[in-house]
Design brief:
It contains four helices and two strands, in the order ααααββ. It has 95 residues and is mainly alpha-helical. α1 packs across α4 (49-71), α2 crosses α4 (49-71) and α3 packs across α4. The longest helix has 23 residues, at 49-71.
């Protein structure tokens, strides 16, 4: 079976989350991948809701930086991450 040449932003998301420091990794994963509410994450992690919010925000900033480093994304004037996703062969995360 041939390996697919398609490469999407989602292909890089999990590897970038996996590279986060443990402090942020689980909070971001539970929030953004599993869709858990912050209060439930706080309870699961045994930390305050404000601590959970901080971990998610800081983890997301590191994810943003990972996409900038990986595929040369930029932050536009509105503060959004923009750019074109690179081919798999040029991806610094997937290779």
């Amino acid at each position: 079976e041939e390996e697919s040449d398609s490469h999407t932003i989602q292909d890089c998301l999990q590897p970038l989350i996996d590279k986060l420091p443990d402090t942020y990794k689980e909070a971001v994963y539970l929030s953004d991948i599993k869709g858990m509410k912050q209060a439930a994450i706080a309870e699961k992690l045994g930390i305050s809701v404000s601590g959970t919010k901080s971990r998610i925000q800081r983890g997301r900033l590191r994810l943003r930086d990972g996409f900038i480093a990986c595929c040369d994304y930029k932050i536009n004037e509105q503060g959004f991450l923009v750019g074109e996703h690179k081919e798999k062969k040029d991806c610094k995360v997937c290779n």
